[in-house]
Task: structure prediction
Amino acid sequence: MPVYQQADSELILSLTVSNGWLTNVRHCLSSHFNQRPAEVVIDLLVIHNISLPPAQFGGGHIEAFFQGRLDTSVHPFFETIKDLRVSSHFLVMRTGEVLQFVSCDDRAWHAGVSEWQGQENCNDFSIGIELEGTDDIPYEEVQYQSLASLTKTLMLAYPQITPERIVGHSDIAPERKTDPGPAFNWSYFRRLLDGE
Result:
């Protein structure tokens, strides 16, 4: 379970990394991963959004989807994604809870066909964080707080991830993806990273 400490009436998530796994978060192991290429440097963080069914929150469907156990009878949309094998390293819920599905040292399947600054296949060298949300519904304050704490922790554990190498899915796959969308307040998130 996550550990929260009260500070300035905001919830701050206390995290540390051990062997690619964060302590104090719920681990929901996914088989949707493989090994990164040898000698790869983890130096990119990709922020996404997801909601299942679309624009609906809660229910545990994202967790089930990333673990390959989504019940397609629950909603007609689920039938359209039943054959996809997708995962992310992390999911930040609307409540601020952080779930981890894949070790950061392994290659989660979050980016798809992608490129950043001349490097293709961003899954090889990135860590993926999904926010429970949509492009056009504002994210929760507690999600920003948890995302900032998670990001700071990852930047300490993987120092090649710098603020300039934190991007959206839309930045690495602009022909296909729009997330985290206009609802995501990049300037506010970056201020949180700076400690404001």
